[in-house]
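User: Fold both of these, please.

Assistant: Here is the first one.
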Amino acid sequence: MNKVKQQIHYCCDDTMRGNVKGQNITVAVLDTGMAAHPDLKGRILAFYDCVNHRHGLYDDSGHGTHVGGIIAGNGVLSQGRLAGMAPEAKLAAVKVLDAKGEGDVAQILEGIRWIRKNYNRFRIRVANISVGAKLDLDEEKERSLIQAVEMLWDEGITVIVSAGNYGPEEGSVTVPGNSRKVVTVGALEEHGMKNVCSGAGPTSQCIVKPELVAPGYQVLSCNSLYRKNRIPYIRKSGTSMATPVVSGAAALFLSKYQDAANVELKLAFRETCEQQQSGRNQGWGLLRVDRMLDMWR
């Protein structure tokens, strides 16, 4: 087992987390929806559909369910072996992308407005946005997206955003990951990775991005088609998978340190990440959950 695989393992191991499992924390997931997977049963508090305006859980892509499993799957179908980062955290699923994983800015903004309206009701402390607009986005739409995620941040919600997969050239972080306030996540470079090129900074305002990296290659998580094909887990790769690793870590931190503000959490990421000898565009370095949870005794 190499160092990266060990990192994933001990992030999700009960002996490492102790009794900290994301209790009393809700993570909002802006994505393609969420399926009723057994590993998430009873912990999806809300579902809001900005695309088709349907009621009831569904995920016609599978991307959002995979992301949700990385954050909060309890691993019931694997006897706990494939539990997510914060297996007792709750989720609020907001569908902003269609079956192809595509969406427009208006839908994403609608989803963000829903979070702002409901974050107290559902105790939302973290927003996971494994979504990135292309680099040629209209300037007005870019400003609108950045302003929207920064308003969430200003409300006290920790916003975790993917860096996108358009790297590794400079200035290739997708919107709204180029916001100066949010925490932007890249995928850790691993042997054998192909076509997973994390977006890189600096931004046009000379801000270093991403802030940190996390494992995002061939990650096993919940399969939205489980009820149909009886395959409980599937593998996906990209910054979309690295981002919920960090969101789950945020849920653990906020569960242990419930009075911590999002700026303190961002500082905790910075102070506890581990720089890698190889790999570009890693910002502060590799997420270290063990260090984060022991930061304040």
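And the second sequence with its predicted structure:
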Amino acid sequence: MKLELGRRAWSWILSVPLAAVLLYLSLRGVDWKGVWQTIAGARWGFLAAGCGCSCFSFFLRSLRWRILLNAEERLSVGLVFRANMAGYLGNSFLPARAGELVRTFVISARSSLSKTYVLTTALSERLMDVIALVLWSSLILLGAEAKPRWMEDLSRTTAMVAAAGALAIALLPHTESLCRNLLRRLSLPSALRERLLRFADQVLLGVRAFHNVGRFLGFTVLTVAIWMTDAFGTILMAYGLHLHFSFTVAVLLLTGMGLGSALPSTPGYVGIYQFVAVTVLTPFGISRDAALAYILVAQASFYVVTLALGLPSLYWIQASSPARVSLWRLARREG
């Protein structure tokens, strides 16, 4: 109990001040009348189309995660989709990305897969998303004529980090013997050593799911489809607010939000997404007021979609669970 309270306290200690500082930097000097006028003039048909793109993107993400999970067991599309949506619902309302634990518990409880293996595939999927976005945005920036210098410098740094992450995923499974030898040489109780060895085996097994050519190609194709869908949805949402985002701007905004979501955050990434929107959009001629109007509508739309898809998924999971365990409570305890 003390450990649980300590972890939860540290999550809030890190995320709340960060959100407050970023909100202050994002909102200072904002003309709220202008923000409201932009939102009030929204064309709802385009916003609804953007939400439709989000729904399709969530479905594609479930298919992509299923590719990794099915490396060890055959799972249905419906189960993976419901688990994924329950996870996104958790990320929207729980701190510290606790939704990753929610979807991990759902899959491990309904299969023979270990929690460690499922969580490794979930986190590896997120890492591959970041790698793909960073490399994609770096290539796009190379062809962009008007771009701020700080963005160009940052893209080079993040591209090198992303390349290092991709190299780690490629090489890590080949270090199994080295990891096992190192753990065996540590002065640890035999029971703890065996637990660590099993944990390391499951982590390496989860990462090794990428090493099958067919799975990797399927994962790559779906990743491209996901981010093309998200970019198109971003452009539609902007058009619904009478804003015009180029494809380059849409990808850069998605990249900034993807990187920002890795920071300690309050539920829904409040503060982080506002700061990202203002920082990324204003150098491309979008006013601060318009940038904030866009991100507020985008976040509200995301909540609508995750609630519409996540609540029925969570209800189905809870209703069909023999033990009727509260995933929400379990995720908060573990996170």
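Residues 2-334 form one domain.
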